[in-house]
Amino acid sequence: MTLLDQPVGQPGERDWQTASIDELIDHILARYHAVHRQQLPELIRLARRVEHVHGERGDCPSGLAEHLEGMHQELESHMQKEEMILFPLLKRGLAHSAHGPIAVMRFEHDEHGEALARLMTLTHDIQTPKGACTTWRALYAGLREFREDLMQHIHLENNVLFEQAMAQENPQ
Questions:
Q1: Which of 67, 89, 153, 159 is most buried, taking the most CB atoms under 10 A from its CB?
Q2: How many helices (H) and strands (E) does the chain have?
Q3: Rg, C-alpha atoms of the chain
Q4: Backbone phi and psi for residue 113, each to the nearest 5 degrees, phi listed first
């Protein structure tokens, strides 16, 4: 079991295990896809600024903005595939046609996990260094939130949505 397979959630949060596929997809779109699309451009902007102003410091996360840009591109491509291909199949009850797309999404989720691991390396586990400016502190607070959100997003898809879709296809 990888880090991304661990259950994550907030106390009092809905138990998504009991939700319908349509409810899960609508929640994922509103809570994760829309939020990631807001988070990443701002995190990239903050990372560029920190690297520009503090690039000479040894603890500066050099290369972070570029890494986040790559993550943004990969995540956007991934979310578009879900929105244009996988989610419409699942909403129409066509889980039997979703094996290939689900396999691709799981593979890409693993790649997102690797990108998060690289993010952790670049930022020394997202530990704000002593004397960090307001921008740097805001960047790291945003990175912690993004990391948690992405892990919850992947968990919900891998361990709830995809499992439910496969169960619908193969009722016990």
A1: 153
A2: 7, 0
A3: 18
A4: -60, -40
d(CA 143, CA 46): 10
Angle between helices 99-122 and 162-169 in degrees, nearest 10 = 160
The answer to whether 32 touches 9, Cβ cutoff 8 Å, is no
* Contacts (Cβ under 8 Å, ≥6 apart) of 130: none
Asked if the model's pLDDT at residue 8 lies above 60, the reply is: no
Q: What is the pTM of this model?
A: 0.88
How far is the C-alpha of 170 from the C-alpha of 64, rounded, in Å? 43
Instruction: Pull the structure tokens for residue 33.
Output: 């896809």
Predicted pLDDT at 7: 44
55-110 tens-digit pLDDT: 888 888 999 999 999 999 999 999 999 999 999 999 998 888 888 999 999 999 99
Is 103 buried (19+), middle (13-18) or exposed (0-12) by CB count in 10 A?
exposed
